[in-house]
Design goal:
heterodimer; A: Cytochrome Bc1 Complex, Chain D, domain 2; 0% strand; globular; B: alpha/beta; FAD/NAD(P)-binding domain; 5-stranded parallel beta sheet; binds flavin-adenine dinucleotide
Chain lengths: 101, 431
């Protein structure tokens, strides 16, 4: 399932240049990701101690997010933020960041 | 260049063609769309950068009177001696390099029907879509005696401007007599940056603790409570002993009149408080350009469509940032940045074929520095609701409470994350 999505994302990007989400997925990863730039760097490339999100492994992203939500991962603020997003939105973010170089 | 191309890949260059494919009826406008942005602050600069990256076919013009931008965020750290004015001053060269036409002038008049803006110089700019992010106006004389002249004695330092207000406040702090009294007058909601006054109190205390430890801070508030109150009060007790006294409205904290000549704050019940220096943060409303254009309602703020930020009173004018009514979202730089991108996407949807975001999530984090290595935060996501905008339940909220002995690492980390936030968001505006 996940692999199919990734594949679809790759195809969507090479064909249309617009991430999968804009082509009919449930959430708009490109727009959702905009908010992350406020801390993770204007191009999501990380800033000081804050992590680089470009090319984040899809599975690892979903796992990290779930751990933040459940307070199972050390956090100051990402745990609070993670609980504010739906599953579809989190998947769209994973699609988006894993597709960035 | 490669970087730019990569971004374009994910931007509209290609999306436009995808959209044209999907909607053959829509003709792709090649450099015919004109996006005009008034105000080069948190909302306007973010909008300009986002539009340049994602809508390369649209021309972007930014009108801003200041030739460089002094942020309000981190201004309080100047008071605390942790930053210099140059650290919070940003150039528009980065936006110029991206192809934004930056015009240093003041927008004087908006002709909404004619899609035209007249500048102070007399120049006239036509637009297809207007993004308006002019920030706040201060309600002079809402506190009797507090007018622009009075702000040279009792600075407000509640807009960046040319940096003179925050510099004056810092100079007064340095000149405070030993054991002197610093007064603050803090307004009722809604106002720019709900935790801002309390970060300011903290940073003033941080300076005084070293330079003038017997000084006192009297914070007069027109409210009963404030953002991150528990965290701030905890920090104040931990770091500054009894230096800070916060006086809520019910304790006669509402300042009704000031007398700058005699350095007096006069309360609701007529109590006269003598101060050695005063920071008056007056009540606010949308900046004059928005009110003069007839976009504001009786509250002085601009009602907008929460999905597109189009003004209720005029089509093709999207009002973002502090000037609009976005409750329960705070009037913060982060919200101005977050909503700027949604507004641009909505404004350019027809022109570009890239659809507006129908399911927007607005995002906010406000960090505050309460002392050295002592950061605290509040975060929230907001979504459309039946009656406008609502915070997403069971999420967000403030930093963990707890004694410094247990929380030192968290506080230190949040201080570093706050610094990274500042660098990231200002890059997202100006780089
Ligand atoms: C002390 C303090 C600390 C703060 N700290 C934080 C923080 O840590 N995090 C956070 O998220 N927010 C913070 N804020 C809030 C933040 O500064 C504002 O929410 C943000 O600036 C709002 O953006 P804006 O675009 O609406 O207005 P601004 O950023 O003020 O930009 C408005 C611009 O419009 C220009 N303008 C006005 N009228 C015209 C005209 N007629 N023609 C052309 N240009 C015009 C002005 O010159 C100005 O540059 C703080 C505020 C203060 C006062």
């Amino acid at each position: 399932m996940m692999r199919q999505k990734l594949l679809a994302a790759a195809v969507a990007i090479t064909c249309a240049g617009w991430p999968l989400t804009a082509l009919g997925d449930d959430a708009d990863g490109h727009m959702l990701a905009q908010a992350c730039a406020g801390c993770h760097g204007a191009d999501w490339g990380g800033q000081g101690p804050i992590s680089d999100l470009r090319g984040y492994d899809h599975e690892a992203f979903l796992r990290a997010w779930a751990e933040f939500q459940a307070d199972e991962r050390p956090a100051t603020i990402m745990n609070r933020i993670a609980r504010g997003y739906s599953e579809a939105e989190i998947a769209a973010l994973a699609d988006y960041f894993s597709s960035l170089e | 260049m490669t970087r730019f191309l990569t971004r374009r890949q994910f931007g509209t260059l290609v999306s436009a063609s995808a959209a044209t494919l999907a909607m053959p009826g829509i003709l792709r406008a090649e450099n015919t769309g004109r996006l005009l942005i008034i105000g080069g602050g948190f909302g306007g600069a973010s909008a300009a950068r986002f539009a340049r990256i994602n809508y390369p076919d649209v021309s972007v013009t930014l009108v801003e009177p200041q030739t460089s931008f002094v942020t309000c965020p981190y201004g309080n750290l100047i008071l605390g001696g942790k930053r210099a004015l140059s650290d919070i001053t940003h150039s528009y060269d980065g936006l110029r390099a991206r192809g934004v036409d930056v015009i240093h002038d003041r927008a004087q008049e908006i002709d909404a029907d004619g899609h035209r803006v007249t500048l102070a110089s007399g120049d006239v700019l036509d637009y297809d879509k207007l993004i308006l992010s002019p920030g706040i106006g201060l309600r002079w004389n809402a506190i009797e005696g507090y007018d622009e002249a009075a702000s040279e004695v009792f600075p407000h330092a509640w807009w960046g401007g040319d940096g003179s207000q925050i510099s004056l406040l810092r100079a007064q702090l340095e000149a405070l007599p030993e054991g002197g009294v610093v007064g603050l007058a803090i307004p009722d909601n809604p106002f720019r940056c709900p935790p801002g006054p309390y970060e300011r109190i903290s940073m003033i205390a941080h300076h005084l603790k070293q330079a003038n430890p017997t000084a006192k801070i009297l914070a007069f508030d027109a409210k009963e409570g404030f953002a991150k109150q528990g965290l701030f009060e905890n920090a104040w007790a931990e770091l500054y002993g009894d230096m800070i006294e916060w006086i809520p409205a019910s304790g006669d904290g509402r300042i009704m009149r000031v007398d700058p000549g005699n350095k007096l704050f006069i309360s609701e019940f007529g109590e006269e408080h003598s101060v050695d220096m005063g920071n008056v943060i007056p009540p606010q409303y949308a900046a004059s350009i928005a009110r003069d254009a007839g976009l504001a309602n009786d509250s002085g703020w601009v009602p907008v469509d929460p999905r597109t930020f189009e003004a209720e009173a005029a089509s093709d004018i999207h009002v973002i940032g502090d000037a609009n009514i976005g409750t329960p979202m705070p009037k913060s730089g982060y919200i101005a940045n977050s909503t700027a991108k949604t507004a641009v996407t909505a404004a350019l949807a027809e022109m570009s074929g890239r659809p507006a975001w129908d399911d927007p999530v607005y995002f906010n984090t406000c960090y505050s520095h309460a002392g050295e290595d002592y950061g605290i935060s509040v975060a929230a996501t907001f979504r459309l609701s039946e009656d406008g905008i609502a915070a997403t339940p069971d999420s967000g909220g403030v930093s963990l409470q707890g004694d410094l002995s247990e929380m030192a690492r968290t506080r230190r980390l949040e201080a570093r994350y706050a610094d990274a936030w500042y660098d990231s968001i200002t890059d997202d505006m100006f780089s």
